[in-house]
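ARCHIVE CARD
CATEGORY: sequence design from structure
SOURCE FIELD: tokenized fold
FIELD CONTENT:
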């Protein structure tokens, strides 16, 4: 039993609970940050776009040569990072310059841009929280909390590996269903329901491309999370040995 006044007991309990919640948020923020970072890299990778174009013979289905396709990929990448509301990509087809995308595709890409910018925001917020939590934890403990912090990093890395591996396996088994549900949940309209016979967007970015892009993102996240977990484990062991050496002295 403690002799602390009831008010002090509640205050201590509140502080303990706040610390637990902050730590849980830190561990949870690691997979969110890693996924958001890799998704952002994917959306900004012209190389990934052009790989998909070559892999699925997009030049044949669109009538655009490799130079034009690379230019389209660059314009789409730049659009995601610009202040432009609508995407305007112009190409030369059959000797005539024309807009590549129709109104429905352009409006859908506006919705996609909203999602992309949302990913940017999530990456920024979780990244700032990770840095802030680590700085406060180390400053408050005057450096003695390094072992605990490293343990949290290791836990976050292992959590990321497990979650992304499970989602990745589920995608390989039932990607069609997951892809469909993602669109239903993410968009408040049906502009994403496009017919390849009448649009270029789904000819450029096939379902197979999205599956491979998902695998690339998942693989990148798993590699990074394993490295993070290994780094956390190594720092944790080093900090434990240092604490033991201090105790002996």
């Amino acid at each position: 039993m403690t002799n602390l006044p009831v008010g002090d007991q509640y205050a201590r309990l509140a502080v303990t609970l706040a610390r637990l919640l902050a730590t849980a948020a830190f561990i949870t923020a690691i997979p969110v940050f890693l996924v958001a970072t890799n998704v952002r890299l994917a959306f900004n990778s012209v190389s990934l776009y052009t790989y998909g174009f070559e892999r699925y013979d997009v030049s044949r289905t669109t009538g655009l040569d490799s130079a034009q396709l690379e230019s389209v990929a660059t314009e789409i990448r730049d659009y995601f990072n610009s202040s432009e509301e609508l995407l305007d990509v112009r190409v030369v087809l059959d000797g005539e310059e024309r807009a590549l995308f129709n109104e429905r595709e352009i409006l859908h890409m506006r919705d996609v841009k909203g999602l992309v910018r949302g990913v940017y925001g999530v990456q920024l917020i979780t990244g700032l929280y990770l840095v802030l939590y680590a700085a406060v934890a180390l400053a408050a403990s005057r450096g003695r909390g390094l072992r605990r912090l490293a343990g949290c990093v290791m836990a976050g890395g292992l959590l990321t590996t497990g979650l992304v591996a499970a989602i990745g396996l589920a995608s390989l088994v039932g990607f069609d269903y997951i892809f469909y549900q993602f669109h239903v949940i993410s968009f408040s309209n049906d502009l994403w329901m496009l017919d390849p016979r009448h649009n270029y967007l789904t000819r450029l970015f096939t379902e197979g491309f999205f599956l491979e892009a998902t695998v690339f993102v998942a693989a990148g996240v798993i590699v990074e999370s394993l490295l993070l977990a290994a780094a956390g484990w190594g720092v944790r062991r080093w900090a434990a040995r240092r604490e033991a050496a201090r105790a002996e002295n």
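CARD ANNOTATION: The mean pLDDT is 91. The longest strand covers residues 90-93.
SHELF: design records, drawer C
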